[in-house]
Amino acid sequence: MRQGYDGIVVAAPVTIPYARYSVHGAHHWLGRALHGLVQAAHLAPKDLDGLCVSSFTLGNDTAIGLTQHFGLSPRWLDHIPMGGASGVVALRRAARAVQAGDADIVACVAGDTNAPDSFRATVAGFSRFAIDAALPYGAGGPNAAFALLTDAYMRATGATREDFGRIAVSQRDNARGFPHALLRSALTMDQYLAARMVTDPVALFDCVMPCAGAEGVLVMRESTAKNLGLAYAYLRAAIERHNAFPDDPIQLRGGWAMDRDELYDMAATTPDRIGLLQTYDDYPVIVMLQLEGLGFCAPGEGPEFVRTHDLRLAGDFPHNSSGGQLSGGQAGAAGGYLGLTDALRQLTGAAIGRQIAGLQRALVSGFGMINYDRGLCSGAVILEAV
Amino acid sequence: MIRHPGNPTILPAAPLVPPAARSRTAGGLAVAASQGRFALQVCADCGRSQYPPREACVGCLGARLNWRDVPTGGVLSAASTVRISSDPYFRQHTPWRMGSVRLDCGVDAMVHLHRDCAVGGRVSMVLKLDKAGQGVMVALPETDINAMQSDPKFRAFTCDPAGRRVLVTDGRTTFGQAAARALIAAGAEVFLGIAAPWHPFPGQNDLPGTPMTLDLTDGISVQNAAAAIGARVDIIVNTSGYFRPGAGDARAAMEVSYFAALRLAQLFVPALQARAGDGTHPACAWVNMIGINGLVPDPAASLASAANAATLALVRALRPTMRPLKLINAFVGPLDDQWHQALPPPKTSTAQFAQAVIAALRDGVEDIAVGDIARHILAQWHDNAAITLHA
């Protein structure tokens, strides 16, 4: 049995409101997230002795360059290039660093900028496998990769477009109460179904909107948080898995299935005691894989699950409390933190939008890096209210 | 800028190319495609096939990954149609069908997908050169022997002469005349270049196609021909060259080979390139007849070896700059002509040459060897260029 994360807490959730386009670089957005963290915790920058960074648009810079850019002298430094799994993986590493005494307060930040051509440029140079073997086949980018997964998932499970629509429409309802979401106008099932096809069967409201933005949290010992007077939540369990099931012809499951028993055992809980599920949602099909992989339903039963549950904040299965990336926008690597920061706000009673009453436990899941034909990173954490 | 022939205010579709960047290792796909083979990296240690191209075996981490022919069968795992692409070339060509195939050799490949392939069904894979000159995976229905032609989208990978206008540059030779006849039989309209038409030559009273004055040793003549028909020609088949044994007039040899190709490249081919994205049958190929001695020098034909090597180097250097055109090298051995009377067979015949050019255009390959001798030498070169050039 793995050692737990006893005494390790997560605090100071910071969301820098997203913008469709920004004239600033990624450094600006990451800087604002760090500024937000020290302000929220009443710290001086020098108090941050650990730093963990995720971003796609820093050019040649990594976390080390940012220490000089931001005037920080951390004794623990990490750079996590795992896209949608960045938040989960950052928490997992930062927690161990604090637990071992390698750092006392770790700032975990993710952010990206977005200019009119940035997303195309990121797709065009994403990875060697993507350049050699994905981009030349229509240059559909992630839409095309997820279209193939969605097509295979629909054939394997009988999922319909309405099933994916239930995810998109319920999240838009959640976003309507979250002022930072970029897409807050009402979305009906009819509108979802009538939207134009982008890459069959992926249509417009299955896709996330690239944008600029940043997110961040602090990881520290519980005693530190108490001394600072911060609201916090406990990190109870964390898993990560990379390149799971590489021999599957097409991705119908992520790595969660390999590690979820350990996740729930570590947290001494079960799926039915999770009060809020934050999935990584850059395409509804991946939400289905998380519902199945994390044990909320059996493999192949994702469609039935979304038909029989109300995924809205006020529903019986609150899911993606801030509207997720489908409504909030995808601020690059910050998309891997979006569910984490809002789960933390919900657990500490500090929701920006509608508060889930009496929330005890949230599960935040991450999924990232379509290196070629499937997402390679998967992970999850369970956070518990004090 | 080439304008629309009927309406000068209409801009033709620009000659764009799909994403061309690849790792050096992935260049092996283009090498296989240019020869019409279906080859992937195969681990010399554990025998596992690899895709996408790798630097270490995905099964055993061994570094000895060699390009080997692998079985072409597979099953279509999923399919999609890209309707919105971020790439300007594909934006010209959407909707574009693509899919994911589990090959019988165990790898998964994203593919260009024939319209008649169904998910869950078997497909037959080929490697084709795309308009960027890169090797790409193409999935075809197993039962359709005419599959490359039966999906109109797949015209992007081939240069079928049917319905296209072709300039054959040298109608004074039996090779030029044979190519012209075969191209007409294949459905092309042919212009046949004749240098010094007042000078008698074999077959002059029974010329195929539309004869026109064209002397590739004279820049003005090439310019005039380009002005007259450059905006209409879709394929050039250059049969001018120096294919004689022994020594001779080196300057004259270079004039009819290297300089002839250079004049075409500078004065005529740009007109094709400008129209290489336009219409249902865009301009698509420049074929050069080149002695295989330009690749592997022949001591019995030192002058021809140098002349053909110069032409070959020119064509290869120009290739990346001439996309989306295909620049096809039709390598010939000793020709079955008056200059090789004393040489025993096998020799490259006019019929072999003509049929090989048609096949290369239909298949969209870029390096073909015509006749047994050229095929044998090219095989030796592919097997081990260093030994072949040393011997």
Helix and strand arrangement:
The complex is a heterodimer of chains A (386) and B (391).
Chain A lengths: L7 E12 L6 H15 L9 E5 L8 H8 L5 E4 L6 H15 L4 E8 L5 H7 L3 H6 L8 H16 L3 H15 L13 H6 L2 E3 L2 E2 L8 E10 H7 L3 E11 L13 H11 L9 E3 L5 H10 L8 H7 L15 H5 L9 H10 L13 E10 L4 E11 L1
Parallel strand pairs in A: 2-3, 2-4, 9-10
Antiparallel strand pairs in A: 1-7, 1-8, 4-7, 5-6, 8-11, 10-11
Helix pairs in contact in A: 7-11, 7-12
Chain B lengths: L26 H8 L4 E5 L5 E2 L14 E5 L3 E10 L5 H6 L2 E8 L4 E6 L8 E8 L5 E7 L5 H4 L14 E4 L5 H12 L3 E6 L15 E4 L5 H11 L5 E4 L11 H18 L1 H6 L10 E7 L10 H17 L7 E7 L17 H14 L3 E4 L1 H12 L1 H6 L1
Parallel strand pairs in B: 6-8, 9-10, 9-12, 10-11, 12-13, 13-14, 14-15
Antiparallel strand pairs in B: 1-2, 1-3, 4-5, 4-7, 5-6, 7-8
Helix pairs in contact in B: 4-9, 6-8
Report on this model:
Chain A is α/β, with parallel strands linked by helices and 386 residues long. Chain A folds into 2 domains: 8-117 and 211-232, Peroxisomal Thiolase, Chain A, domain 1 (3-Layer(aba) Sandwich); 126-209 and 235-385, Peroxisomal Thiolase, Chain A, domain 1, CATH 3.40.47. Chain A is 36% helix and 20% strand. Chain A has helices at 26-40, 63-70, 86-100, 118-124, 128-133, 142-157, 161-175, 189-194, 222-228, 256-266, 284-293, 302-308, 324-328, 338-347, and strands at residues 8-19, 50-54, 76-79, 105-112, 197-199, 202-203, 212-221, 232-242, 276-278, 361-370, 375-385. In chain A, a hairpin with a 4-residue loop joins strand 10 and strand 11. The longest helix of chain A has 16 residues, at 142-157. Chain A is globular. By secondary structure, chain B is an alpha/beta fold. Chain B folds into 2 domains: 27-157, no CATH class; 165-390, NAD(P)-binding Rossmann-like Domain (Rossmann fold), CATH 3.40.50. In chain B, the strands form 3 sheets. A 7-stranded parallel β-sheet of chain B has the order 11-10-9-12-13-14-15, sandwiched between helices. In chain B, strands 4-5-6-8-7 form a 5-stranded mixed barrel. Chain B is globular and about 65 Å long. Chain B starts with 26 loop residues before the first helix and ends with a helix. The relative contact order of chain B is 0.11. The model of chain B has no long low-confidence stretch (mean pLDDT 95). At the A-B interface, helix 4, helix 5, helix 6 and strand 5 of A face strand 4, strand 5 and strand 6 of B.
